[in-house]
Amino acid sequence: MHVLVISASHNLLYTCYCLAAVLMEIQHTLHEPPQAVVNMRRAVNSGMGCSFVFYLAVSITGYLALGENVPGDILTGFSKPASVVTAANVMVLLHMLPAYQVFSQPVFHGLEQFLTEHVPGTQRVPPLLLRVVCRSLYVCMTTTVAIVMPFFTDIIGLVGALVFWPAAVYFPVTMYLKLYRPKPKIRLLMQVMNVVAAMTSFVAVIGAAWNIKMHMQEFTFSWLG
Predict the structure, then answer these.
(1) How far apart, in whole angstroms, are the C-alpha atoms of residue 59 and residue 197?
(2) Which letter, b or e, does each residue of 114-136 get, where b requires 16 or more Cβ atoms within 10 Å of its Cβ?
(3) 111, 136, 208, 217 - which has most CB atoms within 10 Å?
(4) Are 200 and 9 in contact (CB under 8 A)?
(5) What DSSP string runs through 55-77?
(6) pLDDT confidence of residue 41
(7) How many Cβ atoms are within 10 Å of 14's Cβ, its own excluded?
(8) H/E element holding 185?
(9) What average pLDDT is seen over the chain?
(10) What's the rounded Cα separation, in Å, for the pair 87 and 71?
(11) pLDDT tens track for 19-74
């Protein structure tokens, strides 16, 4: 059981890393200071609060329904009633459509900028058409990779465990300490948070690697016969 708890932590870390990536997009849409500080705090508190309640509810209800055999994609653990499962998958699809626009916005911007600056002829393409084509191809490509990749959930969890501490904790904390030089108590609390996050990431990496190892032993590549 303790191994399952450790292996579940990498999924939670990945959600926290995703939030850290979205924060920059939220901050970009806010007004200039000082109102931006108030709005940013409200956005973070409401976003984190809603995410916490949602993931906690899914975790508790999933464990109550399926026990320790909860799959990485919790919807695959249910087959009946079919109408409810179908409706849930439709809701996931509706969630992913705008989520791609938010989470992948830096990738979209970089790709479109690269094409317009380095690929001849793209300057004459209408910006809206370029966006539709590039973003549609990107979504199709990432979706195909997710479908064909074995134990995709475990690999995503490993990625989240690896990048969570440096990207979402270490670099932001280090930059804040360098720029604002907070009081010793605040500095100590931030350093403690930094250490705890690093230890959690380390444990999550072990859990994700264990999950991948166990699933590799059970997985058979059909094209290898």
Answers:
(1) 21
(2) ebeeeeeeeeeeeeeebeeebbe
(3) 208
(4) yes
(5) HHHHHHHHHHHHGGG--SSGGGG
(6) 75
(7) 22
(8) helix 184-218
(9) 78
(10) 19
(11) 666 666 666 666 566 666 777 777 777 777 777 787 778 777 877 887 777 776 77
